[in-house]
Amino acid sequence: MAGTGVFAELVDGDGVFKYYSSGEWKKSSSGKSVPIINPTTRQPHFKVQACTQEEVNKLIEEAKTAQKSWAKTPLWKRAELLHKAAALLKEHKVPIAECLVKEIAKPAKDAATEAVRSGDLVSYCAEEGVRVLGEGKFMVSDSFPGNERTKYCLTAKIPLGVILAIPPFNYPVNLAVSKIAPALIAGNSIVLKPPTQGAVAALHMVHCFHLAGFPKGLISCVTGRGSEIGDFLTMHPMHSGTAYTRDRKQSNDLVELYLHCPDVLICGLNIFWCCFTGGDTGIAISKKAGMIPLQMELGGKDACIILDDADLDLAAANIVKGGFSYSGQRCTAVKVVLVMESVANALVEKVKAKVAKLTVGLPEDDSDITPVVTESSANFIEGLVVDAKQKGATFCQEYRREGNLIWPLLLDNVRPDMRIAWEEPFGPVLPVIRITSVEEGIHHCNASNFGLQGCVFTRDISKAILISDAMETGTVQINSAPARGPDHFPFQGLKDSGIGSQGITNSINMMTKIKTTVINL
């Protein structure tokens, strides 16, 4: 169970989970806490500390100090500690998974998979970091016209400093370690601000790094309300970088953070890494960031284009998996199906048959469809459904909702004037738009302000590559649904879906800067 056994020291006498600073689990001097609502029961399930500005300032100062020593630690020693943390994550997958089930209603099997995948990511990052950071570059001056061989140039990658890491609710462990591990192997220190929904799972993950034996002050985890610490973290001068992942719900939190919101932080940084759904928010950040380099993933309206020569059984299976896994609460979920009219009826029938087999219920029962994360998220999804109904969409199933639980719904004959044709539901509702040409499908995809991922189903590989080239998205999957991963693959968004590229190697490089030494002969 959460907060028991090896994790018992995470909880204070009042049952509130502590924050992590100076290598210790601490109660906040505020005497206040933040409740975490169970999406299934819609009742408070956990509580976390409401940290103060003074506590945040102290842990950031400690992170700055700890980073100086850590940067001098040999690469192999950094990797050794990361391997220990990875093993502990896998060893303690059960309590971590239990937190994910209660906090974000993630199906039990998927919750356990997230913990194991996170361990694998940390181990891979340790190995990749030794390779990437263990290499430098040597240059000579006479390779440029007009120069003699009188200068030797040596380049190396050095850490940024303090990295602020902000994962989203939907993968609060995996998308935390995807920032923490690259930052640590590169010689940075980490301040983690977990999402409110998913904070306790993240605290359990941090304890695995604590047990691995990382130096005091190198890793911190702060929880609290934006009204108390938001602006303070936003403007703190000691951060050197931010690794940031955001979902649709917490993107809304980010908008509020400019006005003191509970979940999202922005800092004066050298690098700002974002991954959340909400292009307007990302644009606002980029304007505020000034000359600070940015790396953002801002979600998407991932289009699935089905050609008339496609394997419809394969396409239907991927549409259901891609559109409804974790109730559609993924940035890379299939968000709109664009199918050629000639095969639309056949495809819709195949998808309907597979949707009918999805189980709906409790995450503890490992149901396919579980409650969405908050009531406000459910209300937003319902608003899209109501709009589609009013404008004439064909409902392939009856719309059904109980609390935060929404049954899977396929909407056929969706038109471009419907909100769901463009907006990201982040829920188990999938629109189908019938097209008469490939060009029409590409046009709809590219008309979106998003450009994260897309996919195309066809037996003609030449056609598939041409369509991939035409789609304005960071990734195109051929004959498979959109997906983030494997975790070492590049992952990026175009347009309002982001700036820069992630993936283990890219993330390590983004956590460093180039240092040049020139030897004059």
Q: Please, how many helices?
A: 15
Helix content: 25-40%
How many beta-strand segments? 25
Tell me the major beta sheet.
Answer: 7 strands, mixed
Low-pLDDT stretches: 248-278
How widely separated are the two ends?
65 Å
Q: If you compute it from the alpha carbons, what radius of gyration comes out, rounded to the nearest whole angstrom?
A: 23 Å
Reported CATH architecture of the largest domain: 3-Layer(aba) Sandwich
Q: What form results from the Cα inertia axes?
A: globular
Q: Structural class, judged by helices and strands?
A: alpha/beta
Order of strands, main sheet, comes to: 9-8-7-10-11-12-23
Beta content comes to 15-25%
CATH homologous superfamily (4th level) name of the largest domain:
Aldehyde Dehydrogenase, Chain A, domain 1
How many domains would you count in the coordinates? 2
Compute the average pLDDT: 90
The CATH topology of the largest domain turns out to be Aldehyde Dehydrogenase, Chain A, domain 1
Q: Which CATH class of the largest domain is shown?
A: Alpha Beta
